[in-house]
Amino acid sequence: MTTMTRTTAEEGTTMRGKRLRAVTAAGPRRRALLHLTAMAGVLGLAAGFLAQGASPAHAELTPENGLLVSTREDFRLCVDTTGARAAAGSARGELAASVARVQQHPDWQAAFGAPTTARAAVADSCPEARLPGRLDRTSVVGPGVTEEPSKYRTWVHVLDADTADRLLGRGVNSLNVSAELMRVSERELATVSTAVLVRAGHLDDPAFRDGALTEGIGLQPRDGAKDTSDRIPSVKGTSKDASKGTSEKAAAQPGR
């Protein structure tokens, strides 16, 4: 009986020793697994912070679509007015209605996607809008040459009678010039945003809507509308495509 008891005790001691060695051996593996799991979590968080803090993609010229710039996600138009503040709200409403009509242009969908209310919306105030003292073929109404163009493809400036007479001339109701340009080469610039200057009271004029506004958005003017393309390159695939650029001399000086 004593021998059996001693043997059982020895066996128990041996079993406990084996379990202890097993636990001791498993410890490093378990710690390594926990360490890898923790590191994976840290790396995941780091990737998330890097993604959130990453700088936006650099703008590139994309003349194959109506937006012209790779960083633009959709068609956007802004408006500035001179003169009485009370006229600003009315101008936005009239302009939005005219843009909605331009959306019926046969080339609209190919350039900007399906016509929507959002694409006819008019943002109040254009960034860095600057009217020059006078206008000529070299005038730029906007930021001018830039590496990061704004989200606005078209900038509309509604001018009171005195400003319109000074900039456009008596009897002239609208004119298109460059607002933003990107460099195509060392000596060439391409218009990527168009400034449409229009005399107040003519926003709902069919001649303006089908002519200067349509062209300022980047589409060919409708048949019968006055073509102002000698002033600003069109962005549909023609010889006046923005990808061909415009001379640096004609675009170097922004309006002041």
From TrEMBL:
UniProt biased composition (Basic and acidic residues): 238-247
Region annotation Disordered: where it falls in the sequence: 214-256
Domain of life: Bacteria
The protein's name: Secreted protein
Naturally occurring in which organism (per UniProt): Streptomyces physcomitrii
